[in-house]
Design a protein that fits this description.
Layout: H1 7-13, H2 17-31, H3 37-53, H4 58-82, E1 89-93, E2 96-99, H5 100-122, H6 129-138, H7 144-173, H8 181-209, H9 228-250
Antiparallel strand pairs: 1-2
């Protein structure tokens, strides 16, 4: 990373992306076995504390977490209206039933989606795709051909929007984009697919010619260190899951997902 970047970004970027991926996976796997609001809320509070320790700015957390909050809210509304009904029924219309059970389940689902998705989004705020590919290839020992190919494809995703604009300009210049909007969008989407396939084929041929398919001789330009900070982050994720589950079981709110 450049020295001109803020210290907070540089510090977070110093953590290997594989450790971030492992921590997010631990949190997700540890929270999917129960649907209760206690464990989700406990994990969410501890995750926010961990993100603050990692120096993620609160404003950035609020901005990036807005979409997660929206997704969690929409999921909770669906559970509220169509979830399992129990206890007092407050409103019923056709298939919609709002009851004590659906309200509790909706609240638990809302908190659980936040607890699972929020760290996954925020931990990868400043992760460079090249650094992630280096970690997957050097730390996890994934096949270099797969890793580098996926990285190259990911780098080309940003060109799709530019290609879509150029296709639109070209079709308007030829006078074929003034009518039948639905047909125009379908034809332009097919042309974009053809462009993507051609560019991918060209890139694959160029990479093959430069030796990217020779796995035994694959070398990495930059090392991907994995040390104490990475281990501490993964252990912190295990600790958050352990505390969340322990508090839920201790308070009697543990609700194994298989019992729903």
């Amino acid at each position: 990373m450049s020295a001109a970047l803020p210290d907070t970004v540089a510090d977070r970027a110093g953590i290997n992306p594989v450790a971030k991926l492992a921590a997010a996976s631990v949190l997700a796997l540890g929270l999917i076995f129960s649907v209760d609001w206690v464990s989700a809320l406990t994990a969410l509070v501890l995750e926010i504390a961990l993100l603050l320790v990692l120096r993620v700015p609160p404003r950035l957390m609020a901005v990036r977490g807005a979409l997660v909050l929206l997704a969690a809210g929409l999921t909770a509304v669906t559970i509220l209206l169509y979830g399992q009904s129990s206890g007092t029924v407050y409103w019923h219309f056709l298939l919609i039933t709002v009851s004590d059970g659906s309200i509790t389940l909706a609240a638990a689902t809302f908190l659980r989606v936040l607890a699972i998705a929020l760290p996954s989004v925020l931990l990868f705020i400043d992760t460079d795709p090249t650094e992630l590919a280096d970690g997957l290839g050097q730390v996890l020992r994934l096949p270099a051909r797969f890793v580098v190919g996926a990285l190259a494809g990911l780098r080309l995703v940003g060109l799709l929007r530019q290609d879509w604009q150029y296709l639109g300009f070209a079709r308007r210049a030829r006078g074929v984009a003034d009518h039948a909007r639905l047909r125009r969008v379908a034809g332009q989407a097919f042309a974009l697919l053809v462009f993507a396939v051609r560019r991918g084929s060209t890139l694959a041929t160029a990479m093959e010619a430069r030796g990217f398919g020779a796995h035994p001789t694959r070398t990495w330009a930059r090392p991907s260190p994995f040390g104490g900070r990475e281990i501490a982050l993964i252990l912190a994720a295990f600790g958050i899951v352990a505390v969340a589950v322990g508090v839920s079981v201790g308070t009697g709110h543990w609700n194994f997902i298989g019992n729903l």
